[in-house]
């Protein structure tokens, strides 16, 4: 079909030089796809190199501790991906003898592997004719064919997958999948694409109908929750501090943080000073409370905006199992806390 021929020709002339495109190794393909979920290529690339250097095989990753994995993942966000990655590595190494499933349906059974990732691995590693459908694919197809189906609906995903499958050359699904995603990433971008240089500008229905800026249609809007975190950076008479692991389910599970007081709104110095002495650290003699106003930050997650303030607290007593400030850098922290530590 003319569509896939022109698309693949464009891809071969314009594709980025990405390391995971130089291999059919399912371990490397899987790593890259998990890392690039919710993450831009330029941000994910250093992590891909770090992981493949530290953990050259799925056995190396499986034998690592969770803290090692989380530390290397630090700053990439969506940390459940790292935990799922580690659990799946152990499953593949110990239960499947290091051999990845070779079909789309079997890959779907792996923890953390959804339809998109399974399709990517199946087509890139095993050349199975199964389409990948991500945001780029939705955008390219909805614009080219003027499809107004709401991409937030499961039925629409099936519609787009069926269309992509129809367009795909069955003898080379890997190149087609790479091409359509790359076209969406580089040419048919979300905002203000340069349609004057587009290879499809004479056949794209959205361009003809002046609908480029309204396609694809997506109705769902994420409800944002605001949360207010007050972190206490303790310093005892020995110059040590205290950190804790977030063991509860939710954001940053199993990462480390300073002692935390979550409030319902932004609070002032008087509120914190009173809370520190009477509520949070009643067993300590508080020598001073200092607001780190320059470190205040709003950290935006997909569904939450975290309003974070740091407070330096000096105490008279020694902290039981206190840790030297230099040593805390070896623990896996959310990047917003690690950036604060770097400035201490």
UniProtKB/TrEMBL annotation:
Keywords: 4Fe-4S, DNA damage, DNA repair, Glycosidase, Hydrolase, Iron, Iron-sulfur, Metal-binding. It comes from the Bacteria. InterPro entries: A/G_AdeGlyc_MutY, DNA_glycosylase, HhH-GPD_domain, HhH_base_excis_C, HhH_motif, MIG/MutY, MutY_C, NUDIX_hydrolase-like_dom_sf. One of its GO terms (biological process) is mismatch repair. It catalyses: Hydrolyzes free adenine bases from 7,8-dihydro-8-oxoguanine:adenine mismatched double-stranded DNA, leaving an apurinic site. It is an enzyme of class 3 (hydrolase). Its EC number is 3.2.2.31. GO terms for molecular function: 4 iron, 4 sulfur cluster binding; 8-oxo-7,8-dihydroguanine DNA N-glycosylase activity; adenine/guanine mispair binding; metal ion binding; oxidized purine DNA binding; purine-specific mismatch base pair DNA N-glycosylase activity. It holds the Pfam family HhH-GPD. Residues 35-186 form the HhH-GPD domain. Its cofactor is [4Fe-4S] cluster. Transmembrane segments: none annotated. Binds 1 [4Fe-4S] cluster. Belongs to the Nth/MutY family. This is Adenine DNA glycosylase. It comes from Flavobacterium johnsoniae (strain ATCC 17061 / DSM 2064 / JCM 8514 / BCRC 14874 / CCUG 350202 / NBRC 14942 / NCIMB 11054 / UW101).
């Amino acid at each position: 079909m003319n569509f896939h021929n022109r698309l693949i020709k464009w891809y071969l002339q314009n594709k980025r030089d990405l390391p995971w495109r130089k291999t059919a190794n399912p371990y490397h393909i899987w790593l890259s796809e998990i890392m690039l979920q919710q993450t831009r290529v330029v941000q994910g690339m250093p992590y891909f190199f770090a992981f493949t250097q530290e953990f050259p095989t799925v056995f190396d990753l499986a034998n690592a501790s969770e803290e090692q994995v989380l530390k290397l993942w630090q700053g990439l966000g969506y940390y459940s991906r790292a935990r799922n990655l580690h659990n799946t590595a152990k499953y593949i190494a110990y239960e499947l003898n290091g051999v990845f499933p070779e079909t789309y349906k079997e890959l779907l059974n792996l923890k953390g592997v959804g339809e998109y990732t399974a399709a990517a691995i199946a087509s890139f590693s095993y050349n199975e004719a199964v389409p990948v459908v991500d945001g780029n694919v939705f955008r390219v197809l909805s614009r080219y064919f003027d499809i107004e189906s709401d991409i937030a609906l499961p039925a629409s995903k099936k519609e787009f997958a069926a269309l992509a499958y129809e367009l795909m050359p069955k003898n080379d699904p890997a190149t087609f999948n790479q091409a359509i995603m790359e076209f969406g990433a580089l040419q048919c971008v979300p905002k203000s694409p340069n349609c004057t240089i587009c290879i499809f500008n004479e056949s794209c229905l959205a361009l003809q109908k002046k609908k480029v800026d309204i396609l694809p249609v997506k109705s769902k809007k994420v409800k944002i929750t605001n949360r207010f975190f007050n972190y206490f950076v303790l310093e005892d008479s020995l110059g040590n501090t205290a950190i804790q692991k977030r063991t509860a389910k939710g954001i940053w599970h199993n990462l480390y943080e300073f002692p935390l007081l979550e409030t319902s709104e932004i609070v002032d110095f008087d509120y914190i000073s009173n809370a520190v002495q009477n509520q949070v650290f009643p067993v300590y003699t508080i020598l001073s409370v200092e607001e780190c106003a320059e470190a205040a930050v709003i950290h935006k997650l997909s569904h939450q905006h975290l309003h974070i303030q740091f407070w330096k607290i000096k105490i008279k007593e020694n902290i039981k199992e206190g840790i030297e400030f230099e040593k805390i850098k070896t623990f896996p922290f959310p990047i917003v806390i690690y950036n604060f530590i770097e400035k201490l």
